[in-house]
Amino acid sequence: MPSASSPQNILLLIPNFGFGGAQQVFHDHSVELAKQFQVTECVFNLDQADAYPSGNPVINLDVPGHGSTLDKIKHFVQRCTRLRFHKKRLNTQVCISHLEGADYVNLLSRTGERTILCIHGSKVHDGEIQGWVGWFRQKVFMPFFYRQPDHIVTVSRDIRQELIDHYKLDPTRITTINNFFHPEKILGRAAEPIDPQYEPLFSQPDVLITSGRLARQKNQAPLLDVFAEVLKSRPTTKLVLLGDGELRNELVAQARELGLRFYQAWNNDPLDQEYSLYFLGYQQNPFRYIRRAAMFVFPSGWEGFPMALGEAMICGLPVVSTDCPTGPREMLAPTTPYGQKISEAEPAEYGMLMPLLGSDYRTYTRGVWVRTLLELLADSARRAHYAAKAQERMQDFTRDRIFQKWEQVIRGQ
């Protein structure tokens, strides 16, 4: 138990629950911190279901997030006011916020507690930060507010460097603590049987798989183009997409334009072996499918410290990932710094790093991806090597190796 001088009451703040990687990390932190502290969770509203319930008390500020500009300003003030009330009521000694919107509310509701911000993704390369609102966030909000907390934790070393280089923050007040994983739990769930209807699919040797929200950040659209080219040389290849999201209809339309024969789980389509592309939707246990594939492909445009990539590595898959900001290079080539964009495939120590699939990917990068995937599909020994190296690397991100750093930050050590 903590000493008498250590903080006792910790409040964890996030805008909303759901199925995202930040929400999963939020849950993991809540569970682990509750072993030593009195932990309460807080969300702006319950519009999304709690996909990762921790069992700890939850405060719902019950403030919506939609409406006109004036409505949003009013809602922001309400969040700050209501959170300040609960901080006082709980005698909160440390408040840790996850995601940018929660960070601002955390700082503006201070009542004397220690404030810590956990930053999950790149702020400089986030493609969703755009327009005049994005400009204001980049040039005004972030440079000002990120100087205010007692401490900042970034999930990736490269996010830390971004804050230092672009926002001129004090390096002594920023600590990198990577996300941690539970390999034994993931492997246990990976061993569970899959739905019998998918057994014929995963009994085949050339199954590529990816996992993540169907969203711009995850960049599945260029991957479909790459896959269509792979099929021309290796028609037995299959591509499985796990996840759902706002781009579902666009990706389905793109698959149709590419002439791919595809399966949609949400339509309850009849299954046969003539499909090449499989939209399996959100899966509560994705690991049982991932571990049965030949390779994990990760085309993201930007990240933080990607949970999906690490989980695939734990499942023993060779991984092919964009060298996107931030996270993949730190995981696959830890002794190298993130710097210039690569234009060719880079065989790293723990997997393959690939050039970004940007807006001009069809002119050159698509060909790099196609060649690399075809080479790996034809080389089972190389895939086995990377599969073993991937599992070896993920032993660096277990709870015991990572979480003691969080305890030190919370206690101000």
Q: Tell me the major beta sheet.
A: 8 strands, mixed
Mean pLDDT: 94
The percent of residues in helical segments reads: 25-40%
How many DSSP-defined strands?
A: 15
Number of alpha- plus pi-helical segments: 15
Description:
The chain has 15 helices and 15 strands. The protein is an alpha/beta fold. It has 2 domains: 185 residues, 3-Layer(aba) Sandwich (Rossmann fold); 215 residues, Glycogen Phosphorylase B (Rossmann fold). Strands 10-11-9-8-12-13-15-14 form an 8-stranded mixed β-sheet, sandwiched between helices. A 7-stranded parallel β-sheet has the order 3-2-1-4-5-6-7, sandwiched between helices. The longest helix is centred in the N-terminal third of the chain and has 22 residues. The chain starts with 8 loop residues before the first strand and ends with a helix. The relative contact order is 0.11. The mean pLDDT is 94.
Search tags:
413 residues, 8-stranded mixed beta sheet, 2 domains, 39% helix, 15 helices, Rossmann fold, alpha/beta, 7-stranded parallel beta sheet
Short description:
By secondary structure, the chain is of the alpha/beta class. Helix content is 39%, strand content 15%.
